[in-house]
Amino acid sequence: MAEALFIQYLKGNGDDLEKWNVASAGCWAYPNLSATPHAIQTTEKMGGDLNFHFSKAVSENLLNDFNLILCMESDHTHFIKRNFPETADGVFLLSEMVGEVFEIHDPVGGTLENYEQTAEKLNKIIRSGFKKIHNLSKK
């Protein structure tokens, strides 16, 4: 959802999507799974699109394409920093983009309301933290 909502935010701001490389990956993800129906429904309500999204696992090749890696949970940041130390300087919790440190738990297996609450958190962080995201992505 974070990827789709970030792309939706960029489009809404008139940002040139060609200047951005936005992707989602999971530390322990099973590859090639489609988004859950609740994730698709929630994202569509907010103007995003997950209909063509398929999961992928974090890998060295994938991470090499990015200079900023935003994680939802501290376990994710620790995993990436430990297993891919060359990326450590660019790894942050998404919540740090708004000057806080908190976990955003994956709503998978939860109710539609859980997905909607998570998506709202993501949207607030993206909107409020965009300037910091933009600045860090240029480093």
Share in helix: 40-55%
Describe the largest sheet.
Answer: 2 strands, parallel
Cα distance spanning the termini:
25 Å
Oligomer: single chain
Q: Helix/strand/pairing class, anyone?
A: mainly alpha
Q: Mean of the pLDDT scores?
A: 95
**Beta-strand percent range:** under 5%
Q: How are the strands of the biggest sheet laid out side by side?
A: 1-2
Characteristic key phrases:
139 residues, mainly alpha, two-stranded parallel sheet, 5 helices, 2 strands, 44% helix, 4% strand, globular
Protein architecture, described:
This protein is mainly alpha-helical and 139 residues long. 44% of the residues lie in helices and 4% in strands. It is built from 5 helices and 2 strands. It has a two-stranded parallel ribbon with strand order 1-2. Helix 1 packs across helix 5 and helix 2 packs across helix 5. It starts with a helix and ends with a helix. The model has no long low-confidence stretch (mean pLDDT 95).
Topology:
Blueprint: H1 2-13, H2 37-45, H3 60-63, E1 69-71, H4 74-83, E2 91-93, H5 112-137
Parallel strand pairs: 1-2
Helix pairs in contact: 1-5, 2-5
Give a brief rundown of this model.
The chain has 139 residues and is mainly alpha-helical. It is built from 5 helices and 2 strands; from the N terminus they run H-H-H-E-H-E-H.
